[in-house]
Each structure stands twice: as C-alpha cells, then as structure tokens.
Design a protein that fits this description.
Elements (H helix, E strand, L loop, with lengths): L15 H32 L2 H28 L2 H24 L8 H11 L3 H6 L1
Helix pairs in contact: 1-2, 2-4, 3-4
C-alpha cells in the first residue's frame, strides 16, 4: 500500500537540468508574451483597427493548427534538444527581424505570421521532456 507521507513539493528543483529547463522556459515565454503585446500594439498604432488585431490573432492560430501534427512528427523523429534549440533560434531571428523592420519604418503587417511557425514546432517536445 502506498505511503500517505507528504511529499516535498519542490523536489524536482533539486536537479540542475530541470532548474535550467524551467528558467529557460520562463525566459522564453516571457519574451514571447512581450513580443505578442508589442506586435498587437504596433499593428493597432499602424491601422487603428480592431479588425486588424483580430487578423493578427488569426495569423497566430492558423500556423499552430497547421503545423501541430508536423511538429509532433519532428519531435518524435529528431533529437528534442536540437529541435528546441532550432526553434528558439528561429523565434529569436523573427523577433530581431521584427525589431529591425519596426526601427526602419519599413514594417508591414505580414511579418507576425512567421513567428508562430517556430512556436508550433516548440510546443510538442515540451511534455515528453518533462515526463521523462
């Protein structure tokens, strides 16, 4: 019969690799959320249209739906660590491109679509990493 003794709630944090994973995920998620707010704000400043903001949301969801199955295949077939590093690099490159285009005032509203293609690939590898 299983013991009813209380477990230490933060026992997983004793492992260095898990702490690094959690810290990097927190940093990545914070940066992604900041980018979403900045893109929405920028689109609204350019267009003053709530409909344009709705289209930005749509361009975030469509690639997630379209690439989710493919991302699962990639996560199962290739090394998850390399997949995560590659997608984080791709998301960083798109963020830098967004910054440079915004600074040069040559920004169009088409760029935010590219960011979610990288995010769709990052999402599937996380649960298997945490469960092993």
């Amino acid at each position: 019969m299983a013991s009813l003794a209380p477990r230490a709630p933060y026992l997983a944090l004793a492992h260095r690799d898990y702490r690094r994973l959690i810290a990097s995920q927190l940093l990545s998620l914070t940066g992604s959320q900041m980018q979403v707010v900045a893109i929405n704000w920028h689109v609204y400043l350019l267009t003053k249209s709530p409909l344009a903001l709705g289209f930005v949301g749509l361009t975030r969801v469509v690639p997630l739906v379209a690439f989710s199955l493919w991302g699962g295949v990639v996560a199962d077939r290739y090394d998850r660590r390399r997949v995560m590093i590659g997608t984080q690099i791709a998301m960083t490159a798109v963020a830098v491109a967004t910054l440079l285009l915004s600074r040069s005032r040559a920004c169009t509203i088409k760029l935010p679509r590219g960011r979610e293609s990288g995010t769709a690939n990052v999402t599937p590898p996380k649960p298997p990493l945490l469960s092993t």
